[in-house]
Amino acid sequence: MFSKKNLLLLIPICFFFQSICAQTLYSRAYGKRINPAIIYVHGGPRGNSTLFEGTTAQTLADLGFYVIAYDRRGEGRSSDPSARVTYAEAINDLNGLMAQYKLKKVSLIGHSFGGLVSTLFTQQYPQKVERLILVAALFAQQESYDHILNSATVEAFQKEDTLVLKKIALIKTLDTASAKYRQLVYELGSSFGYFKMPNPTKESISVNRWYETGVFFKQNIRNDQAPILFYQNEPRRNIDTKNILSALPGRGVKLFGIYGQNDGIFSKKQLLDLKKIIGSNNLFLIDNCSHYPFVDQQSVFLKDVKSIMLK
């Protein structure tokens, strides 16, 4: 049996180990701490921040921002065998990251699946988010899945590709809130080039080459178990956040979006819906650009972020 004295001795030890656990996430800051803070939230689940770090983080910081990139628990370089890979875990860790860097209020760049994480974080902590910047960010998952399947069906019919049509028929029989459904839909979209810019430019080729020959490409760690854990442990597996986004300006959050005109996972209707939510002046659509605006059209992306940060 512990005495009160022994219990008091244990308290600082517990806090010590809690602190160590809180620092297990990979993170890195770019730029001067005195500048406006931006946290980049990567895609996934199974993603990491290496592409953003290896191409854009320092360049964005050089424009006068304090940029922080990190990998979520159980993903990328933030290895954790006990990670559950849920939204609650991600929100808690993002909150802890802000505390670690002593940030009271930030702007969030949520890319792809990271847009969902950022949106749910902002819903829970609106007082901590100055701007929510959605970059090729998911906000209505089933609508995106349906768009990919419908677009691929049209292309497969035109090519008389019976194998692809059979695959699409199979996908449509699966549980839409399952890891397998998500995986096969995205694999289908990728096979049709929905994630690639139509016409690579000299700049995009150079940016990609810079990443592929740099140190961050070697750190491109992927945890294949992350999507499985997410779909096992997270009840909100296929969500629509339009209503959440609509409520955020009333809670003091500035909303923005940067999307590629050629991003094959969003329909024109989806982008129109998003424009109605965040305002036409706050949605930046980039030509000849798909799912990775900071790589496909880096100069335009940086200009748009700089413009957003002044609003």
Task: Describe, in plain words, how this protein is organized in 3D.
The protein is α/β, with parallel strands linked by helices. It has a single domain, classed as Alpha/Beta hydrolase fold, catalytic domain (Rossmann fold, 3-Layer(aba) Sandwich). The chain is 50% helix and 12% strand. It contains 14 helices and seven strands. The chain has a seven-stranded mixed sheet, with helices on both faces.
What fold name stands as the CATH topology? Rossmann fold
Question: Which residues form runs of ≥5 with pLDDT under 50?
Answer: 1-23
Overall mean pLDDT: 93
The SSE order reads HEEHEHEHEHHHHHHHEHEHH
Tally of extended strands? 7
Number of helices: 14
Radius of gyration: 20 Å
Helix content range: 40-55%
Which strand-content bin applies to the residues?
5-15%
For the record, what CATH class applies? Alpha Beta
Strand order of the largest sheet: 1-3-2-4-5-6-7
CATH superfamily: Alpha/Beta hydrolase fold, catalytic domain
| Biggest beta sheet summary | 7 strands, mixed
Distance between the termini: 59 Å
Tell me the domain tally: 1
The outline comes out as globular
By secondary-structure content and strand pairing, the structural class works out as alpha/beta
